[in-house]
Design brief:
With 238 residues, this protein is mostly helical. It has ten helices and five strands. The strands form two sheets. Strands 1-2-3 form a three-stranded antiparallel β-sheet.
Length: 238
């Protein structure tokens, strides 16, 4: 994730939350994400911040409902992934940054282009001439996309959040913030209202530490702000 136009090579390490989020958001039919660009950038940035929190590299100070959360990146060894190490550099030196501002800073750092390229480098997708992604010839829907969606579907149907994989709950929390749980994870068998309530319950549950939940709140707040901005722009244009 860089601001100078260079796209780093894809990682040899396992997929990160941002990679999984984009993979789940891609429509197998069109190659386009099921969210607009205004929401995609903060969504992926939120996934990066959430990954840093899961890695124990974020310290959070909650300042109440109205003032929100402030985050500080903790010193430590390189994480061995350009996406995460670049994110640390973007946020380093800004102790006590507002969580939502942290997401916005990461969203401005070419995060969409970087994560797209990571999927291409990993062989999970290919770029079309129009710049959209499509699944590669070996059909990674069977290797990556479909099993991942199936995991999230099972998590949404499960009864006990404590038994769920932490990363599945993290992805559902990000999808809930983007308001696309039903589009990204179809065929759950749950009515729309019940599905949204379940996703909200999971995203607000006590499944992780304070820093992780602060990152979730930041990602959801940034996504909601993008939705509101898009709605205001559409109203002004009409």
């Amino acid at each position: 994730m860089t601001g100078g136009g260079q796209v780093p090579a894809g990682p040899a390490s396992p997929r990160r939350l941002a990679d999984d989020l984009l993979l789940v958001l891609l429509s197998p039919q069109t190659g386009r994400p099921v969210v607009d660009g205004q929401r995609l950038a903060p969504g992926l940035a939120g996934a990066v911040l959430l990954e840093l929190a899961l890695a124990g590299r974020i310290e959070v100070r909650h300042e109440g409902r109205w003032r929100g959360d402030r985050l500080t990146v903790l010193d430590g060894p390189a994480l061995g992934d350009p996406l995460l190490d670049d994110a640390v550099e973007v946020l380093r030196g800004r102790p006590g940054v507002l969580a939502r501002s942290a997401v916005q800073r990461l969203a401005r750092a070419s995060v969409v282009r970087t994560v797209k390229q990571r999927l291409v480098d990993a062989g999970d997708a290919a770029l079309t001439p129009g710049g959209f992604l499509r699944f590669s010839r070996h059909d990674p829907r069977a290797e990556a996309h479909d099993p991942l969606v199936a995991q999230l579907r099972a998590a949404l149907r499960a009864g006990d959040v404590a038994s769920l994989p932490q990363r599945s709950v993290a992805l559902i929390s990000l999808l809930h913030g983007l308001r696309v749980v039903g589009k990204a994870v179809p065929d759950t068998g749950l009515p729309g209202r019940e599905l949204r309530a379940r996703a909200k319950e999971l995203s607000e549950g006590e499944w992780a530490g304070a820093a992780v939940l602060a990152a979730v709140r930041a990602a959801q707040a940034a996504s909601s702000a993008a939705v509101a901005a898009a709605a205001a722009g559409g109203a002004a244009a009409s």
